[in-house]
Amino acid sequence: MTQAELKAAIEAAFAGTPAPGENFEDISATQWDEGIVDYFKGTTWRGHGVRDLRHHAAALSFFTDKAFRYWLPAFMLAELDDPEGEADIIAEYIASSFLPSEYGRRDARLEQFSAAELEAIAAFLMHCAHSYSQPGISDPHFSEAADIVRGRLAALTRQ
Q1: I need a surface site. Which of 91, 93, 97, 156 has the fewest CB within 10 A?
Q2: CB 61 within 8 A of CB 97
Q3: Residue 102 has what pLDDT?
């Protein structure tokens, strides 16, 4: 899949994703939100600048599950637009959002995604795995995150 095809797949998969709401508790899962509510409130997932999303990359950790689902495509598209420049570590933040943490697996976060959204996320993570794999460079676990997303997709299709 080319980068243009991947961007189109992300945009199509998330076209109908419902917005989380505009209250603080709809967007932020923590009281220490680092300004994410002020930045994201009243916006759609479209039209964000790469620099702005890099500045608010911590939002991927602070978002409620619904907000994460809604604004994730903005972050994926930002990474695809400028992977070596302004996006900086956005891809790593995205991958880590799907990996197990000391707080447990991220199953609740994964359960909200549609099959099309999961396919787009897995394709994005595999794109990152192929784009950023270099011998001797630390692995940001893109393939592992993609496997977790594909596992949820498989479970969803069995239901």
Answers
A1: 156
A2: yes
A3: 58
Strand partners, 101: 104
* Distance from the first to the final alpha carbon of the chain: 28
Cα–Cα distance, 77 to 3 (Å, whole number): 10
pTM above 0.70, yes or no: yes
Number of CB atoms found within 10 A of residue 112's CB: 14
pLDDT lower than 70: segments of the chain = 102-106, 133-140
d(CA 103, CA 112): 19
Cβ atoms of residues 57 and 90 within 8 Å: yes
Q: Which of 59, 100, 53, 92 is nearest to 75 (CA)?
A: 53
